[in-house]
Specification:
Blueprint (H helix, E strand, L loop, with lengths): L8 H20 L2 E13 L5 E4 L5 E9 H5 L7 E5 L6 E6 L5 E2 L5 E6 L2 E17 L2 E2 L6 E9 L2 E7 H6 L3 E3 L2 E2 L7 E8 L6 E2 L4 E10 L2 E13 L7 E4 L2 E8 L1 H4 L9 E4 L6 E6 L1 E2 L6 E6 L2 E6 L1
Protein backbone atom coordinates (compact mmCIF):
# COMPACT_ATOMS: atom_id res chain seq x y z
CA UNK A 1 0.00 0.00 0.00
CA UNK A 2 1.42 3.42 -1.00
CA UNK A 3 2.48 5.86 1.68
CA UNK A 4 0.41 9.04 1.84
CA UNK A 5 2.19 11.79 3.80
CA UNK A 6 -1.01 13.82 4.19
CA UNK A 7 -3.11 10.99 5.61
CA UNK A 8 -4.30 11.76 9.20
CA UNK A 9 -2.93 15.24 8.81
CA UNK A 10 -4.92 16.55 11.78
CA UNK A 11 -3.51 13.98 14.23
CA UNK A 12 0.01 14.65 13.03
CA UNK A 13 -0.45 18.38 13.54
CA UNK A 14 -1.71 17.85 17.10
CA UNK A 15 1.25 15.57 17.90
CA UNK A 16 3.67 18.16 16.52
CA UNK A 17 2.13 20.92 18.62
CA UNK A 18 2.30 18.78 21.81
CA UNK A 19 5.94 17.91 21.13
CA UNK A 20 6.81 21.58 20.64
CA UNK A 21 4.99 22.55 23.85
CA UNK A 22 6.78 19.80 25.83
CA UNK A 23 10.14 20.90 24.47
CA UNK A 24 9.42 24.51 25.32
CA UNK A 25 8.38 23.51 28.86
CA UNK A 26 11.54 21.49 29.50
CA UNK A 27 13.81 24.02 27.82
CA UNK A 28 12.26 26.80 29.82
CA UNK A 29 13.00 25.19 33.19
CA UNK A 30 16.02 26.56 34.97
CA UNK A 31 18.73 24.17 36.18
CA UNK A 32 19.34 24.87 39.85
CA UNK A 33 21.33 23.44 42.76
CA UNK A 34 19.98 22.72 46.22
CA UNK A 35 21.63 21.41 49.40
CA UNK A 36 19.92 18.72 51.46
CA UNK A 37 20.81 16.80 54.60
CA UNK A 38 20.19 13.13 53.82
CA UNK A 39 20.47 9.88 55.82
CA UNK A 40 23.68 7.85 55.62
CA UNK A 41 23.61 4.08 55.18
CA UNK A 42 26.59 1.82 55.97
CA UNK A 43 26.70 -0.91 53.34
CA UNK A 44 28.62 -4.18 52.95
CA UNK A 45 30.04 -4.20 56.50
CA UNK A 46 32.06 -7.44 56.87
CA UNK A 47 30.34 -9.82 59.33
CA UNK A 48 33.43 -10.06 61.56
CA UNK A 49 33.56 -6.30 62.24
CA UNK A 50 31.55 -3.88 64.39
CA UNK A 51 31.18 -0.10 64.12
CA UNK A 52 32.01 1.54 67.47
CA UNK A 53 31.79 5.07 68.79
CA UNK A 54 29.22 7.49 67.40
CA UNK A 55 29.35 7.41 63.59
CA UNK A 56 27.50 10.13 61.64
CA UNK A 57 23.94 9.30 60.63
CA UNK A 58 23.62 11.91 57.86
CA UNK A 59 25.60 14.00 55.35
CA UNK A 60 24.92 17.10 53.26
CA UNK A 61 24.60 16.70 49.49
CA UNK A 62 24.23 19.36 46.80
CA UNK A 63 21.85 18.28 44.06
CA UNK A 64 21.56 19.64 40.52
CA UNK A 65 18.42 19.48 38.42
CA UNK A 66 15.37 21.39 37.28
CA UNK A 67 13.62 23.48 39.91
CA UNK A 68 10.46 21.44 39.38
CA UNK A 69 12.22 18.12 40.02
CA UNK A 70 14.11 19.35 43.08
CA UNK A 71 10.94 20.88 44.49
CA UNK A 72 9.15 17.52 44.35
CA UNK A 73 11.80 15.52 46.23
CA UNK A 74 10.27 13.72 49.22
CA UNK A 75 12.10 12.64 52.42
CA UNK A 76 13.77 9.28 51.87
CA UNK A 77 14.14 9.65 48.09
CA UNK A 78 17.78 10.70 48.48
CA UNK A 79 20.02 8.40 50.54
CA UNK A 80 23.83 8.37 50.74
CA UNK A 81 25.68 5.07 51.09
CA UNK A 82 29.11 4.33 52.50
CA UNK A 83 30.67 1.12 51.19
CA UNK A 84 32.59 -0.70 53.98
CA UNK A 85 33.47 -3.82 51.98
CA UNK A 86 37.21 -3.10 52.33
CA UNK A 87 37.02 -2.24 56.05
CA UNK A 88 39.64 -3.42 58.56
CA UNK A 89 39.90 -3.03 62.36
CA UNK A 90 40.94 0.43 63.53
CA UNK A 91 40.04 4.00 62.62
CA UNK A 92 39.64 4.09 58.83
CA UNK A 93 38.87 6.80 56.28
CA UNK A 94 36.22 6.15 53.63
CA UNK A 95 35.18 8.22 50.62
CA UNK A 96 31.50 8.74 49.86
CA UNK A 97 31.19 8.63 46.08
CA UNK A 98 28.50 10.47 44.14
CA UNK A 99 27.55 7.20 42.46
CA UNK A 100 26.62 5.78 45.88
CA UNK A 101 23.95 8.44 46.49
CA UNK A 102 20.47 7.30 45.47
CA UNK A 103 18.56 10.12 43.72
CA UNK A 104 15.40 10.37 41.56
CA UNK A 105 15.72 10.17 37.77
CA UNK A 106 16.82 13.48 36.27
CA UNK A 107 18.68 14.66 39.38
CA UNK A 108 22.48 14.70 39.62
CA UNK A 109 24.76 14.83 42.68
CA UNK A 110 27.10 17.81 42.45
CA UNK A 111 28.89 17.47 45.80
CA UNK A 112 28.89 15.53 49.10
CA UNK A 113 29.93 17.19 52.36
CA UNK A 114 31.96 15.80 53.97
CA UNK A 115 33.28 13.64 51.18
CA UNK A 116 35.45 11.56 53.53
CA UNK A 117 34.39 10.05 56.86
CA UNK A 118 36.40 8.47 59.68
CA UNK A 119 34.83 5.26 61.02
CA UNK A 120 36.14 3.27 63.99
CA UNK A 121 35.85 -0.49 63.64
CA UNK A 122 36.58 -3.42 65.94
CA UNK A 123 36.48 -7.17 65.64
CA UNK A 124 33.15 -8.69 66.55
CA UNK A 125 33.04 -11.25 69.39
CA UNK A 126 30.55 -13.51 71.17
CA UNK A 127 30.31 -14.07 74.91
CA UNK A 128 27.95 -15.82 77.29
CA UNK A 129 27.08 -13.61 80.27
CA UNK A 130 24.98 -14.20 83.40
CA UNK A 131 21.43 -12.90 83.43
CA UNK A 132 20.61 -10.73 86.45
CA UNK A 133 16.91 -9.88 86.91
CA UNK A 134 15.96 -6.31 87.84
CA UNK A 135 13.31 -5.53 90.45
CA UNK A 136 11.24 -2.41 91.07
CA UNK A 137 9.94 -1.22 94.42
CA UNK A 138 10.00 -2.70 97.92
CA UNK A 139 7.83 -5.48 99.41
CA UNK A 140 5.21 -4.69 102.05
CA UNK A 141 6.54 -3.54 105.45
CA UNK A 142 7.96 -6.47 107.40
CA UNK A 143 8.75 -8.44 104.20
CA UNK A 144 11.90 -8.75 102.10
CA UNK A 145 12.96 -10.36 98.86
CA UNK A 146 13.79 -14.04 99.19
CA UNK A 147 15.36 -16.34 96.65
CA UNK A 148 15.21 -15.15 93.04
CA UNK A 149 15.34 -17.70 90.24
CA UNK A 150 15.45 -16.98 86.52
CA UNK A 151 15.35 -19.03 83.35
CA UNK A 152 17.52 -18.89 81.33
CA UNK A 153 20.37 -18.13 83.72
CA UNK A 154 22.68 -16.79 80.99
CA UNK A 155 22.44 -15.42 77.46
CA UNK A 156 24.78 -15.07 74.50
CA UNK A 157 25.66 -11.55 73.38
CA UNK A 158 27.64 -10.16 70.47
CA UNK A 159 29.44 -6.85 69.99
CA UNK A 160 32.84 -5.14 69.84
CA UNK A 161 35.56 -6.99 71.76
CA UNK A 162 36.43 -4.04 74.02
CA UNK A 163 32.81 -3.52 75.11
CA UNK A 164 32.24 -7.20 75.80
CA UNK A 165 35.20 -7.23 78.19
CA UNK A 166 33.55 -4.55 80.31
CA UNK A 167 30.12 -6.20 80.33
CA UNK A 168 29.27 -7.79 83.68
CA UNK A 169 25.99 -9.33 82.55
CA UNK A 170 22.62 -8.91 80.90
CA UNK A 171 19.49 -7.75 82.67
CA UNK A 172 15.72 -7.77 82.36
CA UNK A 173 13.01 -5.19 82.40
CA UNK A 174 12.10 -4.57 86.07
CA UNK A 175 9.78 -6.97 87.89
CA UNK A 176 7.54 -5.05 90.28
CA UNK A 177 7.58 -6.25 93.91
CA UNK A 178 6.06 -3.07 95.35
CA UNK A 179 3.84 -3.87 98.33
CA UNK A 180 3.99 -7.63 97.71
CA UNK A 181 3.48 -10.22 100.44
CA UNK A 182 3.31 -13.29 98.19
CA UNK A 183 5.74 -14.78 95.64
CA UNK A 184 5.92 -12.99 92.27
CA UNK A 185 6.12 -14.72 88.88
CA UNK A 186 6.63 -12.77 85.67
CA UNK A 187 7.82 -13.15 82.08
CA UNK A 188 10.04 -10.21 81.11
CA UNK A 189 12.15 -9.07 78.18
CA UNK A 190 15.93 -9.53 78.31
CA UNK A 191 18.18 -6.61 77.40
CA UNK A 192 21.72 -5.23 77.62
CA UNK A 193 22.46 -1.79 79.07
CA UNK A 194 25.33 -1.10 76.65
CA UNK A 195 23.73 -0.11 73.33
CA UNK A 196 26.77 -1.28 71.34
CA UNK A 197 26.21 -4.86 72.56
CA UNK A 198 23.19 -6.91 71.50
CA UNK A 199 21.64 -10.29 72.13
CA UNK A 200 22.41 -12.98 69.59
CA UNK A 201 18.70 -13.82 69.71
CA UNK A 202 15.86 -11.71 71.12
CA UNK A 203 14.27 -13.61 74.00
CA UNK A 204 12.36 -13.37 77.27
CA UNK A 205 13.02 -14.75 80.74
CA UNK A 206 10.81 -16.29 83.41
CA UNK A 207 11.45 -14.81 86.86
CA UNK A 208 10.29 -16.20 90.22
CA UNK A 209 10.79 -14.02 93.32
CA UNK A 210 10.06 -15.26 96.81
CA UNK A 211 8.68 -12.71 99.29
CA UNK A 212 9.47 -13.73 102.85
CA UNK A 213 9.14 -12.23 106.35
CA UNK A 214 12.09 -10.00 107.14
CA UNK A 215 14.72 -11.98 109.11
CA UNK A 216 17.59 -10.67 111.17
CA UNK A 217 20.46 -9.03 109.31
CA UNK A 218 24.14 -8.58 109.99
CA UNK A 219 26.92 -6.80 108.14
CA UNK A 220 30.19 -8.69 107.58
CA UNK A 221 33.30 -6.69 106.74
CA UNK A 222 36.47 -8.02 105.15
CA UNK A 223 34.89 -10.77 103.02
CA UNK A 224 37.56 -11.92 100.53
CA UNK A 225 36.73 -12.21 96.82
CA UNK A 226 38.26 -15.39 95.40
CA UNK A 227 39.12 -16.36 91.84
CA UNK A 228 37.57 -19.32 90.08
CA UNK A 229 38.45 -21.04 86.81
CA UNK A 230 41.51 -18.91 86.05
CA UNK A 231 43.26 -20.14 82.89
CA UNK A 232 46.54 -22.01 83.15
CA UNK A 233 49.62 -19.77 83.25
CA UNK A 234 47.58 -16.62 83.96
CA UNK A 235 47.53 -14.32 86.96
CA UNK A 236 44.56 -12.26 88.13
CA UNK A 237 44.37 -9.20 90.35
CA UNK A 238 41.03 -8.22 91.90
CA UNK A 239 40.32 -4.66 93.01
CA UNK A 240 38.94 -4.38 95.61
CA UNK A 241 39.79 -7.85 96.86
CA UNK A 242 37.72 -7.44 100.04
CA UNK A 243 34.05 -6.45 100.15
CA UNK A 244 31.25 -5.92 102.66
CA UNK A 245 28.36 -8.38 102.73
CA UNK A 246 24.98 -8.14 104.44
CA UNK A 247 23.62 -11.55 105.45
CA UNK A 248 20.19 -12.42 106.74
CA UNK A 249 18.72 -15.35 108.60
CA UNK A 250 17.67 -16.40 112.06
CA UNK A 251 19.20 -14.10 114.62
CA UNK A 252 20.63 -16.96 116.62
CA UNK A 253 22.33 -18.30 113.46
CA UNK A 254 23.87 -14.96 112.49
CA UNK A 255 25.63 -14.36 115.81
CA UNK A 256 28.40 -16.89 115.16
CA UNK A 257 29.03 -16.16 111.46
CA UNK A 258 32.45 -14.86 110.40
CA UNK A 259 33.54 -13.28 107.12
CA UNK A 260 35.09 -16.58 105.98
CA UNK A 261 31.64 -18.20 106.01
CA UNK A 262 30.68 -16.28 102.85
CA UNK A 263 32.20 -17.80 99.70
CA UNK A 264 32.35 -14.76 97.38
CA UNK A 265 34.05 -15.24 94.01
CA UNK A 266 34.41 -14.06 90.39
CA UNK A 267 34.18 -16.59 87.57
CA UNK A 268 37.14 -16.20 85.17
CA UNK A 269 36.27 -19.12 82.91
CA UNK A 270 37.16 -18.47 79.27
CA UNK A 271 38.72 -15.05 79.92
CA UNK A 272 42.15 -14.17 78.57
CA UNK A 273 44.52 -11.30 79.35
CA UNK A 274 42.74 -7.99 79.75
CA UNK A 275 40.77 -5.84 82.13
CA UNK A 276 37.19 -6.76 83.06
CA UNK A 277 34.32 -5.54 85.24
CA UNK A 278 32.85 -8.70 86.77
CA UNK A 279 29.91 -9.25 89.09
CA UNK A 280 30.73 -10.87 92.43
CA UNK A 281 28.89 -14.16 92.92
CA UNK A 282 28.19 -16.10 96.11
CA UNK A 283 27.60 -19.80 96.61
CA UNK A 284 24.23 -20.07 98.40
CA UNK A 285 24.90 -20.82 102.11
CA UNK A 286 22.72 -23.32 103.94
CA UNK A 287 22.05 -21.41 107.17
CA UNK A 288 21.70 -17.83 105.96
CA UNK A 289 21.20 -15.71 102.86
CA UNK A 290 23.10 -12.82 101.27
CA UNK A 291 20.99 -9.69 100.78
CA UNK A 292 23.61 -7.21 99.51
CA UNK A 293 27.29 -6.84 98.60
CA UNK A 294 29.35 -3.65 98.47
CA UNK A 295 30.69 -3.35 95.86
CA UNK A 296 28.72 -5.83 93.75
CA UNK A 297 31.07 -5.44 90.75
CA UNK A 298 34.87 -5.56 90.96
CA UNK A 299 37.69 -4.75 88.56
CA UNK A 300 39.74 -7.77 87.45
CA UNK A 301 43.05 -7.55 85.58
CA UNK A 302 44.32 -10.79 83.99
CA UNK A 303 47.92 -11.07 82.85
Amino acid sequence: MAYHPFRHLGLKAVALVLAVLLWLTVAGEHMVERSLRVPLEFRNLPPHLEIVGDPPSSVDVRLRGSSALLGRIEPGEVVAGLDLASARPGTRLFHIRTAEVRVPFGVDVAQIMPGTLAVELEKSAHRTVPLVPATDGEPAPGFVLGKITIQPQSVEVVGPESRLRQLSGATTEPVSVAGKREPVDDVVTIGVVDSSVRLVQAQSATVHIEIVPAPGERELSGVPVRRRNLGSGLQAQIEPSIIQVIVRGRRESLSGISSDAVDAFVNLEGLGPGRYNLRVQVDPPKDFGVSAMTPAVVDVTIK
